Amino acid sequence: RGDSMTDKTPKDINLSDPQHIECPYHAYQALHQTGGVGRDPDIGVVVAGYDTLAALARNTEVYSSSITEDGHGPRHMGINPEPVQDDVEEILSHAHPIVNALFTADPPVHTRHRKLIAKALSPRSVRALEPQIRAITNDLIDAFITRGSVDLLPEFAVPLPVTVIADILGVDRADIWTFKHWGDLMISGNIDMLSHERRREVAKAVVELHEYFVPRIEERRQNPTDDLLSIMINTEVDGEPPLTTAELLPIIDQILLAGHETTTNLIANAMLVLLNDPDLMRRLRDNPSDIPAMVEEALRWDPPIQCTFRRATRGDTLEGMEVAEGDMVVPLWAGANWDPAVFAHPERFDIDRSMAKPHMGFGFGPHFCAGAELARIETRIAFEELLGRLGEITLNEDESDLSHLPSFASHGYRRVSLNFVAR
User: Fold this and answer.
1) Which of 105, 210, 356, 371 could form a disulfide with 109 if both were Cys (CB 3.0 to 4.6 A apart)?
2) How far apart are CA 74 and CA 334, in angstroms?
3) What is the pLDDT of residue 338?
4) Does 4 score more than 50 pLDDT?
């Protein structure tokens, strides 16, 4: 074992291995013993070392967020290299043209997009939503509190962020389950390996989302309102023209995705931590002011997004690992959160941990999650209200399925069923 601590031979890692998907943290610990960089033979170079990843995230010139081989904008066709099949292309031909935007754009285009949506997603704008978020949270709790049990994901952790996003985007709450369906398919198209059949499903979702939003975008160009969608459509900053429909569609779609799946899994992942640590649950109940620190530690210890993707625009070397032009590079944000050189005893869940460097639960650098403030506020309010209104929460093991969703990039449980005593 002594030698392995200093062995810098890059590790091979299989991100798609079901065992890795169940618990990725063993692999991250192994990577940190060998310089924090490895390779997945099917995907590309993986980076878990905190400082290496911080430098990579800032180096947008070499590590591009426009990861499609043709550079023609986000296609949601998975990260697998096979060409998109003709029947799928036929479905996609009905979508509105889109360009690389925000998540899949690099500076200076990305910088412009961030400026134009910063107003709509600024901490101040988001904090103004707090009463509305609390009302949605309590409405959801009201629906199950007398029952003494809740299926946490579909009854609370999914509808909370999806309803908030629907309100923000000025769309009908009646449509939120349609959004959820589109969102799940498109997030999968951004971060997973897709089968041919799955590509067809995702392509249909892309077309339906465009058919839904294009008329709404046109309407708000003509008749601006005060919702976030209208602000995004009509904002001009520093003489920058407002966003075009081709830019807006992928941005809306990213807000929809980032705004629900991640917060849903963050709430469930954090709840599991508390169920396994009754003392911590009691502490938060007695001292709700400690909830934000718990949320930050949950984002470090078991974040809902484990990784994203970059493509190398030219050859480079990362901690002795050769990266060729065109290679896919995988920033393992969750791996950086377990770097023992930055977070002592990373395996411990410690809400009193001093974070000398920020965790990477929301990424790092220019692409740091634009919705971070919203996710933090939603999750804080969720736990303030759940712990404030539900007494003695326990896991209903018979009804729960604590295996993980089949994705190495998005990390969450399949089913979390709770019993509680109404306070």
Assistant:
1) 105
2) 24
3) 98
4) no
